[in-house]
Amino acid sequence: MTDFRVKGRGRVNTDKPIKFTFDDQTFQGFEGDTVASALLANGVHLMGRSFKYHRPRGVVTASSEEPNALIGTTRGKGRFEPNTRATIQEIYPGLKTESQNKWPSLKFDLGAINDRLYMLFSAGFYYKTFMWPRSFWDSVYEPIIRKAAGLGKAPTEVDPDIYASRYMHCDVLVVGSGPSGIAAALTAGRAGSKVVLVDENSEMGGTILSEPSVSIDGQSAWDWLEGAMAELDRMPNVRRMTRTTAMGYYHQNMIGLVQKLTDHMGDVPDGAPRERMWRVRAKEVVLAQGAIERPMVFDGNDTPGVMMAGAAQTFLNRFGVLVGKKPVVLTSHDSAWYSAFDMADAGASVVAIVDTRNELPKALQNAAKARGIKTYLGYTATGTKGRLRVSALRVNPVRNGKVGAGHMLFCDAVLVCGGWTPSLHLFSHTKGSLDWDADAKVYLPGHKTEDVHIAGAGRGLWGIAAALDDGTKAGMDAVKSLGGKAGSATYEVAEDRTGTGITQKELPTDRNPGKAKAFVDFQNDVTAKDIRLAVREGMKSIEHVKRYTTNGMATDQGKLSNMNGLTIASDALGKEAPKVGLTTFRPPYTPTTFGAFAGYHKGTHFEVTRCTPIDSWAEENGAEFEPVALWRRAWYFPKAGEDMHKAVARECKATRESLGIFDASTLGKIEVSGPDATEFMNRMYTNPWTKLGVGRARYGLLLGEDGFIRDDGVIGRMRHDLFHVTTTTGGAARVLNMMEDYIQTEWPDLKVWLTSTTEEWATIALNGPNARKVLEPFVEGADISAEAFPHMSVRECTVAGFPSRLFRISFTGELGFEINVPARHGRALWEKLWEVGKKYDICPYGTETMHVLRAEKGFIIVGQDTDGTVTPLDAGIGWAIGKMKSDFVGKRSLDRPDIVAPNRKQLVGLLTEDPKTVLVEGAQIVDNPNQPKPMKMIGHVTSSYWSESLGRSIAMAVVEGGFDRMDDTLHIPAENGAIVKAKVTGTVFYDPAGDRLKVE
Amino acid sequence: MLLIHCPYCDDTLPELEFSYAGEAHIARPADPSKLSDEEWRDFLFIRTNVKGVHAERWRHINGCGRFFNALRDTVSDRFLTTYKAGEARPDTTTLEAAE
Fold first, then answer.
1. Which parts of chain A have pLDDT scores under 50?
2. Is the ipTM of this complex over 0.95?
3. What is the rounded CA–CA span in Å between residue A266 and residue A859?
4. Which fold, B3-25+51-98?
């Protein structure tokens, strides 16, 4: 294999050779190389296959906008990453990389058949090719498209890496460390501002790294750079961050930075985070992101070996690699001439410089002549030769708009430059406007919405001297906005490479343009003729053209393709570019890992898990858990060999026959206190509270102003001016927020205070005929006999010596108590009850049994049997409405026309014809099962269980006009075309008279 | 992420501490039973949905817990000002001029 490394060039450390693999073949590079530069040093251009046509593709750029050289990297188990840009990934010993989108191999790929079938895959092919016949949608098209879609392989294992997250505040954040960014950082740093300078590359310097022949202040550019870095590092108020991408610019100068910490390391220190997301709030931002070189659009412009001239210059000067020994340069901008000169000076035989322009500065032409480089002015390129590597470029003269005869320039690389696009992505994130510069045919920053300054090539300036001056000015402006004053600085730049150029649509050709494969978007395989086709088919806005062709929609987000696409579309439409529009850039600037966004919030840290004081007991006693809102609740307590069904049947039976114990600590609890507490309760809840005596409790129902059920719970009156309100487990925060809203904004005159006490109390529910027998001996300070302590009562007393609010209530239909004790005593009380309860075969039960027991009694669960469109009347709990009350939240809505209309969905019971059939919750209900599809759905099943007590299944459902359908048979279409029959009933299935509450 | 000034804490704090609470200056009628169906519908559901300066409620939920009002431009997503619950809506013209 030929060595393309040039001695004495580049910044890589040639004392430190590094071996890595690409498609299982071992290559050698040096410390400081990227995968791309190291492969190029070994003469490898072919690095991938394209997305749609599977055309062979080589590396095009030297930086983060790379569309083609996307590779998979493996950094050990679980650490596979697809679509890594070879131009960014640094090599380290043992790095394994692979090419993508090829089978069986990169050099011979069967998928390339698509390239021959390109007529099928033109713009909008999704909408056309796969339309007919209909029967092919599911069986043929969909599986094939799915298999073919996507770029790279998705990782399959859990990512074991750590991702860190930090906040940062600074005075001036400078994005980009080219000459303008460095000058801005120096200026603001010297003025004492707290400065952060970031760059996505491993090394700072930007353009300076690619332009060593320029001299600044009498030193070589690289010596000057070293000095500038040293000065910045000496300032305690300046922080420099490399490998750090400003990926998004958000409101009020918040910038997201993703810092890559370990992807370049062979030996990663234990516990080191892979990436760190910085959320930076900067008082001022300087965007010095430079400009991105534009490709030229001509037939065969995607052949490996065709690449950006500026990239070739970077590979040579920064990495010491010649991308070819016989390159042709094809350009419309002066900058590529300098690339040609650097290549020639490094020993390449530059075949020719082909420029589409007719007139060029004499100095450039003389410099070419001095190096013996042939020049073709006023020429176009009309084709390439070579499939896996370019071997010739076909060029033709253009005279008076006519394309003359073509001839071949034999070469091993084609270095193109179609002008430069100011990189204004982050500025666009701020919704800053872009103004069209008709002369330069570029968009430049316009109206600003944030405290931001743009410097250098981002404003269309060219050359290192201009960039340094503009960066200095941006730094001064930033300091001035901060209220300070920064000193000016001037830089003496010699041998600066200033220049101009033009941009253009696809190059003119003497061949049939309809057959040209002239690519605009390399990554999404969009050609110039696709864009023209989209315009012909009626796409008038660039937004439509983009979506129809997918131009600019790949992972590079159109960094190379957007402007060429716009130029071609505007030519096809016969309108100026700004009239066609520009698609919006959105974060992230470059592909960003999910890990960086997630940070520490993964696994058990993804969200808070709330545990009750009794959670540890449940865990020790083998509970299965389920999440309820943020809570982890005991679901059921299986004994050896039991599944959920068996465990729940046993728990239900034990509770109904003797005694069950249940952890109800998750119930929301709100203390409502103050002289106006009763008035407040009257206004909030549907029920009347005035006459509720101290020591009594009542079921409370809360509506929204729209009349629909929001929450419910038992509310005890502790004192004249104090209510113990309970809410649903998931509704506590919502209810408190709603109550606060009314107190603060509607009724600020009421003297009432709310305190969330959910976590202050542990709540243990004892249910079953033997509940009192176990509890009574523990209670002091209250008589809990049936006469003294009737159903729906509450006492303050002590239970087992712990201060307690003791309720006699039942969510099971059995004799029931809910014992609230301070949370820290919850487990101790539980264990005491447990010990004594053993006499009665006490059985711990979980949420599933709780659900079954309450459903047997027809008690609703808000959010399960209601869904935000259910009124108290719909739910059959109209009795909870205080008829005499003049107003409460939601009362007026109970008279709304839609609420009083007939045929509303109402909550009823369902008993299946076959008692063994348990309906599926959520199943739709129909009247006549023989009606044609789609059938009219008249309701759905809200709750459905096996009832061990009744020896059959039970269900609740909301059904249109349900109250008038008692004893009707309804139909529930089930899986595989089966239809389940069920009879409409009331919702109380068990002990309708309520006798079981009355145990003495 | 926005920075929001809480008029009760008199401090400008990150959006994470706040929750949105709908349009401002929609008072609950003193006696809803006096309202026609149409009037009650308007109270419940009809909102201005402005393009431009919008008076809206926020709650400093992870802070002092107070509800307050804000004027925010729905186009630029910029807060013009915030003010306490119960206070009249400030004159927008002077605030917009100050922008």
1. 1
2. yes
3. 62
4. Folate-binding fold (3.30.2270)
